[in-house]
Amino acid sequence: MTDHTTPLDATDLPGAVKRYLKAHNEHDVSAASTAPAPDATVVDDGETYEGIPAIERWLGRATSEFTYTTTFLGAEHEGPDRRTVTQRLEGDFPGGTVDLRYRFTLHQGLISHLTIAP
After folding, report:
1. For position 66, what pLDDT does the model report?
2. pLDDT by residue (tens digit) across 53-63?
3. Is residue 74 helix, strand or coil?
4. What pLDDT does residue 1 have?
5. Distance set, CA 56 to CA 25, 36, 82, 113 (Å)
6. Terminal CA-to-CA distance of the chain, rounded, Å?
7. What is the pLDDT of residue 3?
8. DSSP label at residue 103
9. Phi and psi at residue 71, to the nearest 5°
10. Left (φ > 0), alpha (ψ -120 to 50) or beta: where does 54 sit?
11. Pairwise CA distance, residues 86 & 48, whole Å
12. Are 20 and 35 a contacting pair, CB within 8 Å?
């Protein structure tokens, strides 16, 4: 099997991905919600959130339910419209530490789909 990924530095990520990650890490729901397309979907913890209002509600819960910090571990370019970012979260949630992969699909400069999973 051939690996078709290219490692990326955080500075090489598309603008929408950088904007989302920065805002999410700063617990800024309104800034984070500017990165997804109006009809975007997010899949996190087995739940799917469709459209900006649902994504904003999810972001609000995700940023207020627990206290955590994030550390960028790496990123990969997986095609013209796909990037995966790995971050370590440490905080007061069950387990205390987890490495999460944020799998972004982009369309016209915005995030059209995001899946977050270990």
Report:
1. 83
2. 999 999 998 77
3. strand
4. 44
5. 15, 10, 22, 14
6. 22
7. 55
8. E
9. -130, 125
10. alpha
11. 20
12. yes
